[in-house]
Amino acid sequence: MANELHKPQNTNSYFWATLGVLHSTIKWLVKRRFLFFLGLLTSILVALSLSANHWVPFDPEQMAAGPRLKPPSSSHWFGTDEFGRDIFSRIMVGMRLTLQVGFVSVCISLSIGMTVGLIAGYFGGWLERLLMRAMDVLFSFTEILIALALVAVLGPSLENAMIAIGIAAVPFYARVCYGAVLVERNKPYTEAAISIGASHARIIFYHLLPNVLPIMIVVSTIGLSNAILAASGLSYLGLGAQPPSPEWGAMLAASKNYFQRAPSLLFIPGLSIMTIVLIFNLLGDQLRQMLDYNDQGKHS
Amino acid sequence: MKQSILTVEKLRIGFKSKTGINTAVHELSFELNAGETLAIVGESGSGKSISSLALLGLLPKSATIESGSVHLHGQDILKMKESELRRIRGGKIAMIFQEPMTALTPVLSIGEQLIEGILCHQMISKQQAYKTAVEMLRVARIPEAEKRMQQFPHQLSGGMRQRVMIAMALACRPQILVADEPTTALDVTVQAQILSLMRTLQQEFGTAIILVTHDMGVVAEMADRVLVMCQGRQIEKGTVLQVLKTPQAAYTQKLLGAVPVMGNVKDSRQLISASMSARPLLEINDLSVRFDIREGLLSRVKSRVHAVEQVSFSIAKGETLALVGESGSGKSTIGRAILNLIPIETGAVRFKGRDITGWSNRLMRPLRNDMQMIFQDPMASLNPRKKVGKLVAEPMQIHTRCSKAERYQKTLKLFERVGLSEQDMQRYPHQFSGGQRQRICIARALATDPDIIVADECVSALDVSVQAQIIELMKSLQDERCLSYLFISHDLAVVEQISHRVAVMNMGQIVELGDTQSVLHMPQHVYTQKLIAAVPSIDPEQTKLTQKGLIQEELLSPIKPIGYKPTTSVIKKINSSGSHWILDQSHQYRGNIVK
Description:
A: 13 helices, disordered C terminus, B: eight-stranded mixed β-sheet, 20 helices
């Protein structure tokens, strides 16, 4: 009988619990509406860019889709370039390249940098000295210089630009991760983990990693915009995406000769780069606020 | 007729939040007469600190004063402009903070900071200000005052820094001194010195003191009148005799009842398990731990800290051995060295008859389920990003092969055993109170059913009422599971409640070891006697701390040049069986005098 009495009560409490979760989720969304907005914007941009090939009004590489060097109009929203290609279509398709470059190169630098940082910070000793001094040597060159040198070796293409930018940014991620690990490693919970007999791998991946990850996520969101800028820079110099690829940096480079006749040709890729970089910077900032659990503790 | 200089009426302070204002202090009213000491007592979160900050207009931005008034000589402080307030702060009302290191600017010398304060409030020349500053340091009984003026805060000990703070606070002859937990961060012997200094200076200058504290011993020692606060409300008000002897409010009674008092433990704890003759669980022989100090360009080892020096003791199954001593005495170092968390210089550690001296982390790993540790700060020793249920289950995950469901059941049992519920398993460490967090740490330490738990100051950070609960829990767990504890603490009253035997540490050595009753009630070593004498009693009628020890004693440092060989320690037996012994004082190892 006790069981019979219990059942409906349980479903009832389950219902209220679900409602409670829903309520707190909505409250959270209202509190972080700017982050929510940025997240939504990013997902829309990602969705648009991934499907761009299917819905853009013109083929981005089709020449003479309209008259040459025209300012924005109803048929060509962003105007046309020196070959009569539709700039709106090119920008949309190019966005996929841009996001891809950012994402891939950040993944490269994050995975290498974090491994180096975790190992150096946790084990210390000669391993730390070896790894961190190597990072320091890389750090002493400008990022773009290393990327340039790597592209020169690998050959100019967008894929190689991604790799080059990814490797060039490794020291930065390694440093940030190393610093964070040092802080976390000296907290008593690490010692507590050692004293319950946890293995090195367990301490690094189960205890340290979740505490370092939020910082790394924030850093990589901002790093994303750096990578996008660097890739555009390389393409502008002719070392990244090659024509006729609709990469934004390459478009900027191509349009600089027609600047006076069709300024929109220059402004539109430039503004696109700026907007994307701004969105990722703001997103990183909002994420930092959200993931800072100390901050949360203070408010609640 | 006493003259009241400060009147607080119906003060209400709240914190702004999105949902409105959370009131932190409700209708607080009190008067302060010239030359008297008013103690505001309460547990953490009772609003006592925030009220004292309001008196100086130092509330944080998120706090607002909802209503009420604070009158100083008939002027309302709460309605004053910032410029007027600045004249009052330091000039009429001065403040001493809990942490003297953070309250002093690290980059300015003591002298500069003192002179700055004096020049702000008095129209005198710099030379005169310098003279006043030196004089104030002398008044605060700081030896070599002229030399101290050139020194920086980090060159002084905690007690010295607090003396400097007092000198600074009194430099402009304020009428009111607000002291927010002035001795909480200090050792008992230093606390005794600071308290008697404050009392002497109060008589010399006629300053009224508002003493904010959680420590009933300090209240009994210092206060004329007492105000008890709980959750922002004033619970009881009266003279120190009334409140401490015949408390009216139930909360005050509970608070006083929870205060551990030395000598209140009637019968000493009896060992439940086997006789002492059986092989001890843990044996420490001639243990020494040293830390290198590297200096210079090539960071060569120039000198070494002799943190632990030739320490020997043993712990039987089911026994609690307490290590007591002041900060820097090496008691925590011993705890870590036993668990091989730090390297051992010389000596041997035997656990269950096995020599585990200097075992690497890898070798120790299977043994760790038998030796667990509880840390001082439960918040910091729990990973903030893991659910506590996961954290408690973790040792089982490492050491035992059991299914997830089994583990869950065991974790649940542990949670229930330490007084937490099933829902609590899904929460994160920051969602608990300090006492609950320490319960979680205890549950985690118990997860693998260990033989010995090293408890490093595990109740020091908790309020007294919570402290008593945790001690009770630890005692009942010991009786149930025949656990042994190495209980590291600076608080003699707590130690008396839980331990079977006590080892008193000073300068890295055990100076006295014996069963709790004889060590705490018939101390033989000079240092133990000094330590026990410094513990404030909560009985206001008892003789107050003597005026002795006002001048800082020579500070000893355990830092020694390389190659220094300590003399072999000689033990003097107190009783025939040798279970109570002290270190022979003529042979005692001494540190160098800090210059």
